[in-house]
Amino acid sequence: MLPIIEFKNVSKWYGHGNTRTEVLSNINLTIEEGEFLAIVGFTGSGKTTLVNLMTGLLQPSEGEVLYRGQPITGPAPERGIIFQNYSLLPWYTVYQNVGLAVDEVYPYWTKEQRNLHIRKFVQMVGLSHAVDKHPAELSGGMRQRVSIARVLATDPDLLLMDEPLGALDALTRGNLQDEILQIWGTNRRSAVLITNDVDEGIYMADRIIPLDPGPAAGLGPEFRIELERPRDKTDMNHDPHFKRVRTDILNYLVQLGEAGRPDRDASLTLPDIQPIKPGSRSFVSKWRRA
Ligand SMILES: Nc1ncnc2c1ncn2[C@@H]1O[C@H](COP(=O)(O)OP(=O)(O)OP(=O)(O)O)[C@@H](O)[C@H]1O
Predict the structure, then answer these.
(1) What is the pLDDT of residues 138-196, one digit of tens each?
(2) Which of 88, 155, 228, 276 has the maximal Cβ count within 10 Å?
(3) Region of 279 on the Ramachandran plot (φ > 0 left; ψ -120 to 50 alpha; else beta)
(4) If you measure from the C-alpha of residue 175 to the centroid of ligand 1, how many angstroms do you get, rounded to a whole number?
């Protein structure tokens, strides 16, 4: 079976000439059908750039990004993306926001099919009571639920998530992690999660790959998460594999952070100057000259 996503020697830069910034350098990555991959990395390392190459919102500067063997030329509903900022249409209700996405993918559905489908996904994210509310009437967590429902209702084969839960409180975050996992597991779709939370990555993914700090970021080593599913957060904390993989990833990130700190090992060389004593000749003549 063809991999769902393949990066072949991909580099991405912004700008030209002197203003050119190389963000990603020579990325090679294969994501298998049905896999849940997490990418962890430092802020500004290029995670959003990486995921946008998969959505088709960006094109590589060099190399190829393939979806099931074909170059990605633009966004498509089979690759659904959940962003951190929920980007809902403010003048539409929850129902209408989800409906808009459904219409795009299933334009020939009857009113009844459409209605059942929208309500199913609104219910799935626990928002049936708010189905007729507008985004301004919802909390941040509720808005993010709508955006998740909206993407899931389009039934994407590949679910791309760019730090989707970063702004949420711990409880809402935990609930949505479970909902996403349940939906991913039901039809065994493929998923890519961008996160800066190692524990979230271990809880959700089959494999974690760190993105090294930029500029010209490359991928670090992969860490396989061999924990049975469904995973239980409390049990997981006592699992020797969890503890080992967590320590390995954190050590790797710490070491990257240390290496990325500018002039970490450089000794500071001070200019060779002689202090001038007030009252000395040179001090007085200096002030006279001024
Ligand atoms: N359109 C653009 N034009 C120029 N530079 C850009 C553009 N988009 C991103 N960059 C730069 O590319 C680098 C990587 O950005 P990117 O958003 O991919 O990182 P990130 O890892 O997702 O960051 P964060 O975790 O803070 O969201 C940054 O230095 C950013 O300033």
Answers:
(1) 998 889 889 989 998 998 999 999 998 887 788 888 888 998 898 888 878 899 999 98
(2) 88
(3) left
(4) 29
ipTM computed for the complex: 0.97
* Atom 7 (ligand 1) nearest CA: 14
E strands in the chain: 5-14, 21-31, 36-41, 62-67, 70-71, 79-82, 158-162, 190-195, 207-211, 223-224
Q: Which atom of ligand 1 is nearest the CA belonging to 43?
A: 25
Q: Which domains does the chain have, with CATH numbers?
A: 5-78+156-261 (3.40.50.300)
Residues with CB under 6 Å of ligand 1 are 14-15, 21, 23, 41, 43-49, 214
Question: What is this structure's pTM?
Answer: 0.85
For residue 23, how far is the Cα from the chain centroid? 15
**Interaxial angle between packed helices 170-186 and 140-152, expressed in degrees from 0 to 180 and rounded to the nearest 10:** 10
Contacts of 246 (CB under 8 A, 6+ apart): 198, 199, 202
How much of the chain exceeds pLDDT 70, in percent? 89
Pocket test for ligand 1, best of 47, 51, 212 (most atoms within 8 A of CB): 47
Give residue 11 CA to ligand 1 midpoint distance, Å: 14
Average pLDDT over residues 252-272: 66
**pLDDT of 220 higher than 80:** yes
Q: Mutation test of ligand 1: which of 18, 21, 81, 160 has the most ligand atoms closer than 8 Å to its C-beta?
A: 21
Backbone phi, then psi, for 80, in 5-degree steps?
-90, 140
